[in-house]
Amino acid sequence: MSTTVEFDVSAEHRQILLGVATETIADALRTRRPKLPELADFDAELTRPHATFVTLEDPAERLLGCIGSIQPAYPLVVDVAKNALMAAFEDPRTSGVGLREYESMSVKISVLSPLEPMSVGSLDELRSAVRPGVDGLLLDAGAHHSTLLPSVWPKVSGVDEFLEILWAKAGLVPGVWRSETVMRRYTTVEFGEKGPRDPA
Asked: Is 105 left (phi over 0), alpha (psi -120 to 50) or beta?
């Protein structure tokens, strides 16, 4: 039985968090010395620790950056700001966001629920326990770690492909279960906005 905590982010708070993400990136482009949000400016719900991911894409849905955290370490608004900056300028897979990309990019924020341990001891048990379209998964197997957000589900054919990608991302052989494997799951509240937007 799943014990994943159900939670949501209000429409007002979603807009505030999207504003934090875009304005922090704009500030970095303007000044090269971005400021993190002042907690006193936000409601209590936005200052509680939460783990988040921020994903940036161009109008053709090509990745501009995606960085996130799995464990809550910072207040929600600060975590969003930090991950927005890293997604825009520090994702090693991309060339980063410039003034031109900023105006047209889409921004998506994923707010993660607390992690839920999964009592599984084999791939078959994991396949039976995972909830397609709902669960994000965190894999730990010794020195190997990876995660896939629930937003990956529409891009795969099913559970087997989801797990194959998760295993490969961790540097493991897909289809091989190690005795030290530990699985945890989480859900996300996802929201975003598309460009164009005013120049930074």
From this structure: beta
Q: Which of 137, 188, 184 is nearest to 165 (CA)?
A: 137
| Range(s) of the domain holding residue 61 | 11-113+188-193
CATH number of the domain at 54, please.
3.30.700.20
Q: Indicate whether 159 and 81 sit together in one domain.
A: no
Question: What CATH number does the domain containing 130 carry?
Answer: 3.30.1490.150
pLDDT of 164 above 90: yes
Please report the beta strands in 97-143, taking only residues with DSSP state E, as ranges in sequence order: 106-112, 116-117, 136-141
> pLDDT, tens digit, for every residue of 104-140?
999 999 999 999 999 999 999 999 999 999 999 999 9
User: pLDDT tens, 62-73?
Assistant: 999 999 999 999
Beta pairing, strands 106-112 & 188-193: antiparallel
